[in-house]
Amino acid sequence: MAILEVKHIEKNFGDTQVLSDISFSLEQGQALSIIGSSGSGKTTLLRCLNFLERPDGGNISVNGKVIFDAQDPATQSEAQIRKKRLHFGLVFQNFNLFPQYTALQNVTLARELMAKEHGGESKAQILEAGKALLKQMGLEDRAGHYPHQLSGGQQQRVAIARALAMRPDILCFDEPTSALDPELTGEVLRVIRELAVQKTTMIIVTHEMNFARDVSDQVIFMDGGVIVEQGDPQQVINHPREERTRQFLSRREG
Ligand SMILES: Nc1ncnc2c1ncn2[C@@H]1O[C@H](COP(=O)(O)OP(=O)(O)OP(=O)(O)O)[C@@H](O)[C@H]1O
Ligand SMILES: [Mg+2]
Questions:
Q1: Is the predicted pLDDT of residue 253 greater than 70, yes or no?
Q2: What's this model's pTM, rounded to 2 decimal places?
Q3: Domain 4-97+169-253: which CATH number of 3.30.1330.10, 3.40.710.10, 1.10.3720.10, 3.40.50.300
Q4: Best label site of 22, 44, 108, 254, fewest CB within 10 Å?
Q5: What are the backbone angles phi and psi of residue 167, rounded to the nearest 5°?
Q6: Cβ neighbours of residue 44 under 8 Å, at least 6 residues apart?
Q7: 42 CB under 6 A from ligand 1?
């Protein structure tokens, strides 16, 4: 059974249709890359999955259960959406760390709030888990640093640890390296690659074609709010079937 099933997602901003009939599914442990030119709707799609935007049509299922259906208001109450958002983790292009908190506090904050509300883990357990995640990101010696004391690549790795701390079913990345210098890009791609090896279920919006081809089980090419082509990474990136995909890829090389 697919861990994520997205069916016929539509999104409009005013009169402009930004996403049209977006459907795909993702198996547990798979990585899906989404490629496409600026304005094609990649970020909007991730924001819909994380309920930062409300889709105007379609439905989303996680583990076989419909968690959002545009036709069914019962799936759309604020309280429900807050809970369902926890299925997804989101790593932003610009890190979006809380500047007033240390790296470790950034990682543990949401989980501490959740434990306060719903009980469960002790603060000590959460801190332990947070430190382990920072270690996994190669940042064990940066736990007490504030974001402004960290490089962009380090900040992004803290942001990845923060997303992982909530134990999402699906971890989403929106161009995680496009705000980074080339030498810092490598360290972030390395940790995402490692997550893929560990079979973390991921959706990665990226402009790094070689990376997308190497780490993904599946690639989607979007243009103008639709999925133009999707399938095996080798096929989509090396041997695209669609003219629009070919044009996009050749523009990038040129
Ligand atoms: N809040 C909004 N209100 C109105 N239009 C929006 C809004 N957010 C996005 N759009 C429009 O939706 C379209 C898709 O934008 P989106 O940010 O999803 O593209 P993208 O594929 O992520 O592009 P990029 O590669 O530049 O990040 C664009 O035409 C954009 O102008
Ligand atoms: Mg975007």
A1: no
A2: 0.95
A3: 3.40.50.300
A4: 254
A5: 50, 55
A6: 11, 18, 19, 53
A7: yes
